[in-house]
Design a protein that fits this description.
Layout lengths: L12 H6 L14 E7 L5 E7 L1 H5 L3 E5 L31 E2 L5 E7 L2 H9 L2 E6 L6 H4 L16 E3 L2 H7 L2 E9 L11 E8 L5 E7 L4 H12 L6 E4 L15 H13 L3 E4 L15 E9 L5 E12 L11 H6 L5 E9 L13 H19 L3 H7 L4 E2 L4 E2 L5 H12 L11 E3 L2 E13 L5 E7 L5 E4 L9 H13 L6 E4 L16 H25 L14 E4 L2 E4 L6 E3 H7 L5 E7 L4 H4 L3 E12 L6 E11 L6 H20 L30 E6 L23 H13 L15
Parallel strand pairs: 1-12, 10-11, 14-15, 21-22, 28-29
Antiparallel strand pairs: 1-5, 2-4, 2-6, 3-5, 7-15, 8-13, 9-10, 9-12, 13-14, 16-17, 18-19, 19-27, 20-21, 20-26, 23-24, 24-25, 27-28
Helix pairs in contact: 9-10, 9-17, 12-13, 16-17
Bound molecules: dioxothiomolybdenum(VI) ion.
Dioxothiomolybdenum(VI) ion binds next to loops.
């Protein structure tokens, strides 16, 4: 009678579709005034002077905050870099230096948004312009080595590379590129900042901020303003998409708070769509050189994956493309490296499956090319190199169902009907191609906390400071809580999105269920035990005198296993104890399992494309994705996540690219009209299958992350299908029609 896994509808669905859900910028606040962020129009140099004479003439203008007059922040946190990588090096008007185009250089506040916009447009900015690094080819002449790649080494080497290379009878040396991409959640970044005086006379800062990390916003803003963390509150019950962009608190959050302090009123600062292209992170472009060598039977004897990506002048942030190559195939001899090409562009950041999405495009394209050279089936080549253990970490997998994923995917797709020769399949005058790729994403876990209270009305309230990015956190946590406490889901409420609630980590790296879920479960168990203990010791309870292991629970009641007629409701126990609710707090954290097992979700993606040979147009009639992702918390939200990932993978393959003007360094397609993403008509059949997988090692729930694996492998599977259809190998994403003509 478990609620876990049940495909129940989203708890927050009604609030969202009816408008009852308030997003950050919609929160009603008394006396609210409006800020507009002003950003640089040069890529490198200094702000010499900002003439605000005309701006100040606009009625209703309350503040023009520039590097000349912005309040000075405590010196030790001048650059806002508190706790990398989630704490970022921000630009908070403490200096006049310009590092990239679209960098915040001023904030204008007025009584209405229109007045603020009008005034912002009237600012006259004088710059001293310096030469800007805007050419990737030139920037890659002076590379930096990142300190770390996620938590791993930047470079790895195993075996003997030269021996391995020479042992191969077939060799591939190919370079793949991926462009800069932007997250573009429907809800742009937005912050409402409000200062109040606390009872002790000290300052209190409240931020309604669209974020993937409540506690991160709280801590970083506390550090920037020199406040104790408990004097900063971040609130965000709903997020209109994040995808990694909202995993960090960027400059505008602190700027809104600085402006609010200056004007003595609550200030709302909502980014324009165009301001999503620079100051709040992006996926960097990558250049990935893959070298593979294999024997005649397809066994890899060497693999080399060297990645160069751009980074900003402010930070060394790397897209960790090589991680997937370290673990995917059983190659005895290997090298992976990561290098950074510093450019005058906004700082790059996490974007859905950072590293795996872009890295798997290169690796899985290269495997397809190698299979073609060997005259082998691409799926057979992958099976030939199937890694029974993690070859990089030299650890057993906690679980791995990739073989079943390949089998089921091939079966459902009809892979064995594939004629291996390129250009051999046609339908209705179009070329047809079939491609496949492996998918993977690591399974991570952080400490989490949850409070659980049983109330006298028979409902329970569970609370944790986690986030719901539209992914289903409210829903699955409610299911886990209901299951642990043996209540129907209708009688459980789960609260999140408030930094005053118990600790929860960033909703990034597909870790929310794995990190917060166990704490919710533990809180439910602890609460049930506490209520049981109270009943057993209370003579007024029908359970009095029994032992805890003789008590069962179902549907909000405790009963004696030996005599089920002796029972009482959880509500009755609370009522007898004053009716104020009985509460527990649980904290859970990972143990040493990471030292014993390598933990990954795996999958296989199969893609069909149709290519119009005259026009170069590519359509994707069919995708089949099969995944081993541990135990599902909710079948419906899980399928949605994986399907959404595949949609984004098709987007990455065919549509997405941010184009940077080579002179000004600004995104020229910084809007949703010209930054192409798929429409409904671009997406056709997507068949998502999930294999049963029991993993006792990843966490107490046995759940692996599902937020990011869906996008991985898809870019390569599409490129491989395009090659099969046309005989043209496109190594540079996106695969736009001009590349086929
Ligand atoms: Mo995700 S890119 O870890 O928000």
């Amino acid at each position: 009678m478990s609620n876990i896994g049940a495909p129940i509808n989203r708890i927050d669905a009604w609030a969202k579709v009816s408008g009852a859900a308030h997003y950050a910028a919609e929160h009603p606040v008394e006396g609210l005034v409006h800020a507009v962020l002003v950003t640089s129009t040069i890529a490198s140099g200094r702000v010499l002077r900002i003439d605000d004479g005309a701006a100040r003439q606009v009625p209703g203008v309350l503040l023009v905050m520039t590097p000349q007059n912005a309040p000075r922040l405590p010196r030790e946190t001048k650059d806002g870099k508190i706790q990398p990588p989630v704490g970022r090096r921000l630009t908070l008007l403490q200096e006049d230096e310009v590092y990239y185009n679209n960098q915040p250089i001023a904030v204008v506040v007025a009584d209405t948004l229109e007045h603020a916009r009008d005034a912002a447009a009237r600012l006259r900015v004088e710059y001293e312009t310096k030469p800007a690094a805007l050419d990737f080819g030139q920037a890659r002449q002076s590379l930096r080595t990142p300190e770390k790649v996620m938590a791993e080494e930047s470079d790895t080497r195993r075996g003997d590379l030269l021996d391995g290379w020479q042992a191969g009878s077939t060799r591939l040396d190919a370079t793949y590129t991926t462009p800069i991409e932007h997250h573009n959640p429907l809800e742009t970044h937005a912050t409402i900042a409000e200062w109040r005086q606390g009872d002790d006379g000290g300052e209190r800062l409240t931020l309604h901020d669209s974020t993937q990390y409540m506690k991160g916003v709280q801590r970083i803003m506390a550090a920037i303003f020199g406040l104790p963390p408990e004097h900063v509150t971040a609130i965000c019950p709903y997020v209109g998409g994040g995808f990694g962009s909202k995993g960090s608190a960027w400059s505008h959050v602190a700027l809104a708070a600085m402006a609010a302090k200056q004007v003595g009123r609550p200030v709302k600062l909502s980014l324009d769509r165009n301001q999503m292209f620079g100051p709040v992170g992006q996926r960097p472009n990558t250049e990935q050189r893959l070298r593979l060598a294999a024997q005649e039977d397809g066994s890899l004897t060497a693999s080399v994956h060297d990645t160069v990506a751009y980074t900003s002048m402010l930070e060394n942030w790397i897209e960790p493309c090589g991680l997937v190559t370290r673990m995917m195939y059983a190659t005895p001899n290997q090298q992976t490296t990561h290098r950074l090409a510093p450019m005058n562009l906004g700082t790059p950041t996490f974007m859905r499956a950072p590293g795996e999405a872009s890295g798997s495009f290169a690796l899985e394209s290269a495997m397809d090319e190698l299979a073609h050279q060997l005259g082998m089936d691409p799926l057979a080549l992958r099976l030939q190199n199937y890694a029974e253990r993690d070859p990089g970490k030299e650890l057993p997998w906690s679980s791995k169902s990739l073989r079943q994923c390949y089998e089921i995917g091939a079966e459902r797709f009809g892979w064995k009907e594939r004629d291996a020769r390129p250009r051999s399949m046609r339908r209705d005058g179009k070329l047809v191609g079939w491609g496949m790729a492996s998918a993977t994403y690591p399974t991570n876990r952080s400490p989490g906390e949850c409070a659980a209270a049983m109330l006298a009305d028979g409902t329970a309230l569970f609370r944790s400071s986690t986030q719901d990015l539209g992914t289903g956190t409210y829903t699955v946590m409610t299911q886990i809580a209901a299951d642990a406490l043996c209540l129907p889901v209708e009688r459980v409420r789960f609260e999140l999105g408030d930094s005053t609630l118990p600790e929860a980590p960033v909703s990034g790296g597909s870790t929310t269920v794995a990190s917060v879920g166990p704490a919710v479960q533990a809180a439910g168990h602890a609460l049930r035990l506490k209520l049981t203990g109270i009943a057993l010791a209370d003579e007024r309870s029908p359970l009095c005198g029994a032992t805890a292991d003789g008590v069962g629970a179902e549907q909000g009641e405790l009963y004696l296993l030996a005599d089920p007629s002796r029972r009482e409701t959880l509500a009755a126990i609370v009522a007898r104890h004053g009716g104020d609710g009985i509460e527990v707090i649980a904290r859970t954290e990972p143990g040493s399992e990471k030292e014993q097992y390598s933990m990954h979700a795996f999958g296989a993606i199969f893609i069909e494309v149709e290519v119009d040979e005259d026009l170069g147009e590519i359509r994707v009639p069919r995708a089949v994705g099969v995944y081993g992702v541990g135990r599902l918390m909710n079948e419906k939200t899980a399928y949605s996540q994986l399907m959404g990932g595949i949609v984004w993978g098709i987007s990455l393959a065919l549509f997405e690219a941010t184009l940077i003007d080579g002179r000004a360094g600004r995104a020229v397609n910084g809007n949703l009209a010209e930054y192409h993403v798929p429409t409904n008509a671009d997406i056709q059949s997507i068949d998502v299958q999930i294999v049963d997988e029991d993993d006792p090692h990843v966490n107490p729930l046995g759940a692996k992350g599902i937020g990011e694996i869906g996008i991985t492998g898809v870019g390569a599977a599409v490129a491989n299908a395009v090659f099969h259809a046309t005989g043209r190998r496109v190594r540079d994403l996106p695969i736009t029609l001009d590349k086929l003509l």
